[in-house]
Each structure stands twice: as structure tokens, then as C-alpha cells.
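Researcher: Let's continue the batch. This sequence belongs to histidine kinase, and it's 458 residues. Same format as the previous ones, please.
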Amino acid sequence: MKKLSVKLGILFFLIIFGLITFMFFFLHKGIAESRVEEELKALKARGNSHSAILEKHFSIETIDHVVLMESESMTDVIITDKNGNVLGSSSDTASFEKYLRIPSSSISAEGEIVEDNWKDEPYIATISPIEVNGQLAAYVFMFENTASVHSLIQGLNDHFFLAGWISVCLTIIIIIFLSRGITKPLLKMKEATSQISKGQFSVSLPIASNDELGDLAKSIELLATDLNYLKQERNEFLASISHELRTPLTYIKGYADIVQKRKLPDEEREKYLKIIVEETNRLSELIKELFNLAKIDQNSFVIHKECIDLKLFFKKMEQKLSLAFQEKKINFELLCPENTLIQADPLRLEQIILNLLDNSIKYSQAGAKIELKAWKNKKSIHISVLDNGKGIPEKEIPLIFNRFYRVEKSRTRSLGGTGLGLAIVKELVQAHGAEIMVNSQENVGTEIELIFKGELKR
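Model: Same format as before. Here are the C-alpha cells for histidine kinase:
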């Protein structure tokens, strides 16, 4: 994680430093050019001012006065006639001869720039015309040593250099706090995932922000909770399998030993053999349901959907269970409109409904009522199994689909079952893309409703 913080820091620094350098370059260039342009404009304005005075009073005295004024300033002036002959100069003209070029074309009254290459030339220069009675009479050449411009730019460079260093230092400080702020929660998440990998699922992460890092912290906590639940469920599952397998095996082994080692009357022998057969069947049923669950978990079974007429489908199931209804004197009622069609796997749907009806029969008293109902609701088909049996305590309802879970904690053998039926039902319902809901009250009854999306119409 330290490597990540270093990488992030370097990446942020390069990006921010590149942006700062880019902006500083163009800002410096713009300010420097602006300042040089201001110097040239000021120099040209000064020349235009002298030109305006000389146009009003063009004489030797006025020329000498202008020259005297410039001799005490940072700039220099040279006044020539229209042919280029020097009439007056504030400094030795030898230094300015290369700039004293008479233009071949007329010059604007606002003046023009003669030299603006401040980087390589010793002077910048402007020229302003002097007109007397509407006729060109002379020129005013203004000069400024570029050393002053260089000094101005150097001062600007110093300011930018200082600002650059301050920006770099602040950037480094910000990046250090920023990279630590990002990597600190990641480091805690890494420690949490390390604990999870060692089987320690009681992890807690501070969720200080409502962003992607906060979402990741929530996801890790949720993962730890789910893994802890799965671990507990696996332990309970293994304990339940152990219990469920041991019980019938104990009965089989015990009664088989009795039958084998003792000389029993035929009636008692028949009784023990019947128990052995019952427990063998129970064991076979348990292994079958475990095998079904294994196939569901591995997605190794396929749902083959067909168009099913629920009225006819339920009638066949009623015939299969008629003996069970008669034995327990159950009042069974089937409510299903004609031509109620559904897309489902007939074998799996039968397995679902049989499981639900079997549970209703087991947990209902003699003379109870069981209702199997189906109806259409917009674009879905609803199937409901309703009984007025023992019901399920409210706190137990979310748990009834867990494997080997039984509301009857005593695991009484009189009720039979393996505790896997509803777990298989839920998996098969979800494999159909359907939903299952439970509504139950203790000592009142239970209703389990299946909702299949997308009805099929003829």
C-alpha cells in the first residue's frame, strides 16, 4: 500500500506540476509581451508628445529644449530633418546610426515602431513625424535602452520563480495529504480482507465518505457478514446432515443386529424389519434431496419450460394426493379458472406444488382445509397453497427456507421430512425466475404464494 501511495503521489505531482508549468509559461509569456508592448507604446507616446510641441514651435530653441529634457531621462531623442540630417540629439548619435533610417513611405501621425527586438538589440526605437504648415519637416526618433526592459523581465522572472517554488511546495504538501487520505482507507480495507482470508469475519471499517471508497468499505463489510453467515450455515448444514444420517443409520444398525442375533417371534421380527425398511426409505429420500440440492447449487440441471394448463395440471396432482387427503380427512379445494396457462417446467413445478401440499398435510389437523388456488394478475400468474394448520411463528418465517431448518425443534419423527423440502422449493422457484412469499399466523394457518412473471395467452 505504501507503494501505491508513492505511485499516486508521483502521478499527482507530475500532472499538477505539468499543469502549473504549462500555465506559468503562457502567463509569463503573455505578461512579458504585454509589458514590452507597454514600454513601446509609452516610448512612442513620448515621441508623439515632442513632435506635437515641435509642430507648434519648430525652432532651434524648441529643439534644444526637447533635447535637454531627454538628456535627464532614461530615454534618448534624436531630431532629424526630413533628409536625415541630425538637428539635435540628447546623446552621442554614433550608437543610434543604424536606427536613423528615413522611411521610404509616409509615416502615420501616430508614429511607428522602428525597432522592437528587445531580446537581441541594445535599444528599442520609435519614429514620429513633424509637420509644419501641412508639410513634412522633420522626424523625432525616440530610443530606450533594452537593459531596462531586461531588468523588468528579470524582475518578472524572479516573481514567477518564487511563485513556482511556492506552488511546487504547496503541491507536494497537498499531494502527501491527498495520497494518504486515499490510501489510508485502502490500507484498512487491505487489513480487513487479510483478516477475512484468515477466517476472521468480524471486521468493521469506518465509512467516512459517501463515495466509491465508502461503497467499497460497505461491500467489504457486507462480504464479511455474508461469509460469516455462510460459515455458520455450513457448520449447521454439516451438523444437520450428520444428525439426519446418523439417526436412520442408528435405527437400521440397531434393529438389524437385533434381528440377526436374537431368535424373535415372526410378529416382532416383522415389526423390526418394517422399521428398518422405513428408515432405509427415509435415508434414501434424504440422499435424493441432497443430490437435488447439489445439482441446483452447481447449476447442473436445466429448466425445460412448457405451456401448462394449470387446471388440468392441478387435477392430476389432486388424484395423486387423494389417498393422503382421505387418510387425514383433509378437505381439499381447488380454485383455478379455465384456460389458466403458464410457462414452466412440468416436473419441477409438480415437485414445488407437491412439497407445499405435503407440508400443509403434515402440519394440519384431521378435518382441516387445504386450498390450492391459481389466478391471473396483469402479466403474472399467481399460485397459492393455503391451509388452516399449525402456522409458523412470525420470527421463524424468514428461516423456513434454510436447509435442514424445522419449526419443530424437537425434530419429531412423527412429522417425517428431512428439512430440505422448502429449501429445494425456493431454489426451483428462483430457477423459474419467479418469487415466493409466505404469510402465516401461529394456530391460524399458512399461505405460500408463488408469482410467475409473464403469463401465456392463447
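Researcher: Any comment?
Model: Helices lie at 2-56, 60-71, 146-197, 212-261, 266-297, 310-327, 346-362, 421-431.
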